[in-house]
TrEMBL record:
It comes from Oreochromis aureus (Israeli tilapia). Pfam families: Abhydrolase_11. Residues 33-214 form the KANL3/Tex30 alpha/beta hydrolase-like domain. InterPro entries: AB_hydrolase_fold, KANL3/Tex30_Abhydrolase, NSL3/Tex30. It comes from the Eukaryota. This is KANL3/Tex30 alpha/beta hydrolase-like domain-containing protein.
């Protein structure tokens, strides 16, 4: 027996629409916590790691909406993420009280950018950000880390951020990352995957094993945020 249901949806986006999938917990009549997820530069919402996380979130009682946006321009991605956030809030069959933004690689850059913008307008718009393989810089171009981390450093102290990164990620120099975290005002937690690449691949481990670790961390982190909420 499935512990969640998944339905394909179309999110209005100007004159077009975005393909999305809504995962709904089957064991509850209403979901109060929701997570939005999106992919990196070369994938879509059916990227295996996003599907795994979305299904586990829904199986543990969280609403999860993941979407596809093929644009490689961050400003365009930000507009798409905004449209999905608006769509989620319009779903009247749920009483969503807490929303977390998340994504993988470029997707979490867009998530952080939207969280920054919304946090300047309202304290209740977004609870936290989940960053899977945050791309702090292009491979071999560590000088870009200041520009790439601007939105992270601007997040307010009330914001919560979870990073999941591989220790061998060639887009996340550890020294520059540690410096970035020290400069952030937000409340940060980090899961380092030993031997993990930017794609969260770990030599000698199956993707299922890696994602079990990642999913467990994300779910426990969200639950912890809810427990700490006033």
């Amino acid at each position: 027996m499935e512990t969640f249901e998944e339905e394909a949806v179309k999110v209005p986006f100007g004159a077009k629409s975005l393909d999305a999938a809504l995962c709904v917990p089957a064991a509850v009549t209403d979901a109060h916590t929701a997570v939005i997820l999106t992919h990196g530069a070369g994938g879509d919402m059916n990227f295996s790691q996003l599907v795994s996380l979305a299904h586990q979130l829904a199986s543990h009682g969280f609403l999860c909406l993941r979407f596809t946006c093929k644009g490689l321009n961050l400003a365009y991605r930000l507009k798409a993420y905004t449209a999905v956030w608006v769509y989620l809030k319009s779903l009247q069959r749920f009483t969503v009280k807490r929303i977390f933004f998340g994504g993988r690689s470029m997707g979490c850059r867009a998530a952080a950018a939207l969280a920054r913008r919304l946090s300047e307008e309202s304290e209740a718009a977004v609870e936290g950000v989940i960053c899977l393989s945050f791309p702090l810089h292009p491979p071999g171009q560590t000088h870009a880390h200041r520009q790439r981390s601007e939105d992270l450093r601007a997040l307010p102290a009330r914001m919560r951020v979870l990073f999941v990164s591989g220790t061998e990620d060639d887009m996340c120099d550890r020294v520059h990352f540690d410096t970035t975290v020290k400069e952030m005002k937000a409340q940060v937690e980090i899961l380092w995957l030993r031997g993990g690449s930017h794609g969260l691949k770990v030599k000698g481990r199956s993707e299922v094993s890696v994602m079990e670790e990642v999913n467990l961390k994300v779910i426990s982190w969200i639950r912890n945020q809810a427990a700490q909420a006033p």
